[in-house]
Specification:
By secondary structure, the protein is of the alpha/beta class. It has one domain. The protein is built from 5 helices and 8 strands, in the order ββαααβββαβββα. Strands 1-7-5-8-2 form a 5-stranded mixed β-sheet. It has a 3-stranded mixed β-sheet with strand order 3-4-6. A hairpin with a 2-residue loop joins β3 and β4. α1 packs across α2 and α2 packs across α3. The chain is globular.
Length: 233
């Protein structure tokens, strides 16, 4: 039987009229519980899987493209003012550069979608499939599931130090580096449903810490209409 639980976060709940963007992030593979020592290399590996999904989101959603163009004004370089698609792409690339400079962390020019400077907050609805029906029942009493949830939450936010990336450096397509959260205190709630993972594509025999994760993300503005106006919806 599936088991569900909702964790309330530090941010205010998102009202329906305040919602801006909704999408889903996917991950399947190793999700080791975060213990006393942690597994920063594993956590960053998950972060790297979320990066191209979030990059596509920024490049495809008109409101986020407009936000990137707005940030291009923060650079001293001459910004194209024309209306061609080439000018727009240049402004967006300048905007990504400015945002990456603003959230330069652990050697990565990060771009969080949910950040204080963007006046944004979010809620998460997570489906966590993992091996073993006995592991789906008690998310609060099963320390390993709580640990897996913490690993996923850490992977959703920008790293604070090189220790959190296991001293990794950006690959060719990781500048800028897209993340969901600047800070997990900007999350209003996390709703988690756990159930049994039977197998993974191409891997019929799953490992104990394998998981399939689907995260529904709802992003809203922290203060009425501020973020909406900023994005110019």
């Amino acid at each position: 039987m599936p088991y569900t639980h909702t964790f309330l976060g530090a941010a205010d709940a998102i009202e329906e009229e305040d919602q801006i963007v909704e999408f889903r992030l996917l991950f399947e593979g190793l999700v080791r519980p975060t213990g006393n020592k942690g597994h920063p290399g594993d956590t960053h590996a998950i972060r790297k899987v979320f990066h191209p999904q979030l990059r596509h989101l920024w490049e495809s959603r008109p409101s986020l493209r407009q936000l990137a163009e707005h940030w291009s004004l923060k650079l001293p370089e001459a910004i194209p003012t024309g209306y061609s698609s080439i000018d727009e792409k240049l402004r967006i690339s300048y905007g990504f550069k400015a945002m990456g400079n603003n959230w330069d962390r652990a050697g990565f020019n990060c771009i969080p979608l949910v950040a204080r400077d963007l006046d944004a907050t979010c809620s998460l609805d997570m489906l966590l499939l993992r091996p073993g029906p006995q592991m789906t029942r008690h998310i609060l009493s099963q320390g390993d599931i709580d640990g897996q949830l913490k690993t996923i939450m850490d992977a959703l936010r920008i790293p604070d130090s090189v220790q959190e990336t296991a001293n990794a450096t950006p690959e060719a397509d990781e500048t800028p580096f897209f993340c969901l959260l600047e800070d997990d205190r900007l999350v209003s709630e996390v709703h988690v449903t756990t159930d049994e993972l039977l197998s993974l594509p191409g891997k019929p025999d799953v490992d104990p810490n394998d998981a399939h994760v689907v995260i529904r993300v709802r992003v809203g503005h922290r203060h009425h209409r501020t973020f909406d106006n900023y994005l110019g919806q």
